[in-house]
Specification:
The complex is a heterodimer of chains A (417) and B (171).
Chain A (H helix, E strand, L loop, with lengths): L4 H10 L12 H32 L33 E5 L9 E6 L5 E7 L6 E7 L2 E5 L4 E8 L5 E7 L3 E8 L2 E4 L6 E6 L5 E8 L6 E8 L7 E2 L7 E8 L5 E7 L10 E5 L7 E2 L4 E2 L2 E2 L2 E8 L2 E8 L10 E8 L5 E3 L5 E5 L5 E4 L6 E3 L4 E3 L11 E7 L5 E8 L2 E9 L1
Antiparallel strand pairs in A: 1-30, 2-3, 3-4, 4-5, 6-7, 7-8, 8-9, 10-11, 11-12, 12-13, 14-15, 15-16, 16-17, 18-19, 20-21, 21-22, 22-23, 24-25, 25-26, 26-27, 28-29, 29-30
Chain B lengths: L3 H25 L2 H17 L1 H4 L5 H18 L22 H13 L2 H12 L4 H8 L3 H19 L13
Helix pairs in contact in B: 1-2, 1-4, 2-4, 4-7, 6-8, 7-8
């Protein structure tokens, strides 16, 4: 018989299954960890004023000579941007990347703007147990990083990678991988590093306990180098929360921010830009999408002035879950805003404003200025495998991600011409 | 050195660990992740114990911590990666309901996290709408709409599958 929704509710009431084993929770550890956090909060609170001064002191250094940070000049290719070797034809092929253990699931989670370096991970013995992988062209290197859910988000042209790990004690921790060795990033209690530029500046976020307990809120931070201590980036106001998600070669940082003083359970996310020299972030207007102005914008990547992300517009009289979502790119140098023609969920963007991700079919797709390319599986057929895209080189010719084949994820590189 | 407040905390929570672990398991479908959720919730609770222990309903307070930690973790994408060939924990039991529960749990695991949390709290835990709204920190209206979307999603996922319980009687 066909199941109706009342029957589903009835079935759920009977779903009285239990975990396959008793809980492994240590209350002694919980007490010690809670006390450690309290101590850290007291220290942080005492140092907060100093940190605030530092943050403001660092940013205005470059401000002299300009009253307000003017948008940087239109995009100019950096010296190291590879020159395309001819017009982009949109012809791509997929290559499964070499991995240390071919029985394990693998994926690419980031890449550098030239497409030389890809970073990723391989699953371990248990869920959330991963070994980090770094590919330099065809060579793969494993990186030891104790903890759970280890992940690298970005790598620069020098091969310096950043990410995070859930430490056995102490929660989410930011890490950098320098020359094959994972090192902790300093100055925050809990948080993650999300992006790095060629100058070695790193951005990310730290967690802060919220007065609106039991939530944890995010604060955007920047590290001047992988050896420097984190400094808070200023937020638009005292009630705002946010995180930094990208930094370009000129030092411009972007992130998402939300005004938590607004009523209701959901505060819209907005795009914030911290320009070099400015003492405050610029909160950009929500992008226009078909039918009106977006209710929320979720930036996914930042390269060469282009932010690519997802904008959603709530529909009048409809629940928030019915909001329609659009892939959008915003150029923070020129102010240009485009709704991209193909409906993909952001996976990665590049310095040309191209975007790669997956539509609802979960077939990896590249969206350029002019066209949409359905990426192939290893058999060469476009759209033959489901997957994700997580990196896109500036010339659009190298992509990294995962293809799902034989019930397992495989790290993949697509090369296009 | 433990004080009276520590003892009170341990006495309170140790009695509730199995139930909290079960709630966490219902939400994330994996015993290891359920451990992590409850371990973190226990830490958060101790940080606030002097206030939380005076709350009108401490159980509801702890439940809210677990649910919100679950949703917070989902938002950060822990769950997304399909690296494993094996499905999440499956109950190793020979009783005849096991297949049905596996099918239901697989479907539940595919429902978006917020809808899943609402379904778990309303139907597995039989909590009233207002209580679910407090746990999630949203309005009663949102709980109702999420319930409706979640049930519709479950129905689509289960499709025409025949389940013993679908023709069964109320217990």
């Amino acid at each position: 018989m066909r199941i109706d929704e009342d029957r589903v509710a009835d079935l759920l009431r009977r779903l009285d299954d239990e975990p396959t084993r008793p809980p492994r929770v240590d209350l002694g550890v919980a007490i010690r960890e809670a006390r450690r956090r309290r101590r850290n909060r007291r220290v942080t609170a005492a140092g907060a004023a100093a940190l605030g001064v530092l943050a403001v002191a660092v940013l205005p250094v470059a401000l002299h000579g300009s009253e307000r940070a003017a948008p940087a000049p239109a995009a100019t290719p950096s010296a190291s941007t590879p020159s395309p070797t001819g017009p982009f034809l949109g012809e791509c092929r997929a290559t499964l990347l070499p991995v240390p253990n071919s029985d394990r699931g693998t994926e690419v989670t980031g890449g550098d703007p030239d497409g030389r370096w890809l970073v990723g991970r391989q699953s371990g013995q248990s869920p959330m147990d991963y070994r980090l992988l770094i590919w330099d062209q065809e060579q793969v290197r494993e990186v030891e990083l104790p903890g759970r859910d280890a992940q690298l988000y970005d790598v620069n042209r020098a091969g310096l990678a950043v990410g995070s790990v859930m430490a056995m004690r102490g929660g989410l921790q930011p890490r950098a991988v320098h020359d094959g060795v994972a090192v902790p990033l300093l100055g925050i209690d809990r948080g993650a590093a999300r992006a790095i530029n060629d100058a070695g500046r790193i951005v990310g976020w730290r967690f802060e306990e919220s007065a609106r307990e039991p939530f944890v809120e995010e604060r955007p931070v920047v590290w001047d180098s992988y050896q420097a201590r984190a400094v808070d980036l200023p937020l638009p106001g005292p009630e705002w929360t946010g995180s930094a998600i990208g930094i370009d070669e000129g030092g411009t940082i972007v992130g998402r921010v939300a005004d938590m003083s607004q009523p209701g359970p959901y505060q819209p996310q907005r795009l914030a830009v911290w320009r070099p020299g400015a003492s405050r972030p610029e909160v950009l207007p929500q992008p226009r999408v078909p039918g009106g102005v977006a209710s929320t914008f979720w930036p996914g990547s930042f390269a060469g002035g282009w932010v690519t992300g997802s904008a959603a517009r709530n529909l009048p009289g409809k629940p928030r879950s019915a909001a329609k979502s659009y892939p959008v790119r915003i150029n923070v140098r020129t102010g240009e805003v485009d709704v991209l023609p193909a409906a993909v969920t952001t996976g990665a963007g590049n310095g040309r404003g191209w975007m790669a991700g997956v539509p609802s079919s979960l077939i990896p797709t590249l969206v350029t200025d002019k066209t949409s390319v359905t990426l192939p599986g290893p058999d060469g057929r476009a759209g033959s495998a489901h997957g994700w895209v997580r990196s896109l080189s500036d010339d659009g010719r190298v992509l990294g991600g995962q293809l799902y084949l034989n019930k397992r994820g495989h790290a993949v590189r697509w090369t296009c011409r | 050195m433990p004080d009276a407040s520590d003892e009170e905390y341990v006495a309170y929570l140790s009695a509730r660990l199995p139930a909290l672990h079960r709630l966490a398991y219902s939400l994330c479908g994996n015993a290891d992740q359920a451990d992590d959720l409850v371990q973190e919730a226990a830490t958060r609770l101790f940080e606030r114990w002097s206030r939380a222990s005076r709350a009108d309903d401490v159980d509801a307070y702890v439940r809210a911590i677990v649910v919100r930690l679950f949703l917070d973790g989902r938002r950060r994408g822990w769950w997304r990666i399909r690296l494993f060939a094996a499905p999440p924990d499956v109950r190793r039991s020979e009783d005849r309901g096991v297949e049905e529960r596996t099918v239901l749990r697989d479907a539940l695991a595919q429902v978006p996290p917020r809808q899943r949390a609402v379904l778990v709290l309303r139907f597995l835990y039989d909590l009233p709408v207002d209580e679910v709204a407090r746990s999630l920190g949203c309005s009663a209206g949102t709980v109702k709409s999420q319930t409706s979307h979640g049930l519709a999603a479950m129905r689509r996922l289960l499709g025409d599958r025949e389940l013993a319980g679908s023709t069964g009687k109320e217990r």
